[in-house]
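=== RUN LOG ===
request id: a7f3
mode: sequence -> structure
chains: 1
length: 165
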Amino acid sequence: MATTSGTAKVTTIGDTKILIERELDAPRHLVYEAWTTPELVARWWPSDRGTSVSTEIDLRVGGRWRYVMRTPDGTEVAFHGEYREIVPNERLVSTEAFEGIPDADEHASLNTLTLTEIDGRTKLEILVEHPTKMGRDMHIESGMEGGLQDALDLLEEIAAERARG
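=== RESULT ===
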């Protein structure tokens, strides 16, 4: 296994978009499974920044998701959204709202996850589209990249572990 620890590339596009790209050493159906199965998401999503309190996924167009983690100081951090498009093992489009801000749904981003398999490995791309430049900038300045790198390391580990059986 050639792990790709910490290798996600984060790029801003225009004033409102963030593109996240990473190659994972696991087949895409297992990456998709780790991305959409509550008990697996609970293992990677909080990364090393907390523990999962709740992971709810209603995986259907119009279905909602909600993840809650507790940080080491006891603070609960929650995000939620709605699935807009689902192509199993290939593409997920959903909103994402951080519950720690007023009017969270008005500031929600639209996230498009695309998984492409190349020789048993998966190219993961996430296009995050914010309604405003301020929202995009706040997202970047939140320290999201460090948590993202750690979470994607864990996602890869879980998918690769499932590939090994």
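=== NOTES ===
Residues 144-164 form the longest helix (21 residues).
The helical segments are 28-36, 38-44, 133-141, 144-164.
=== END ===
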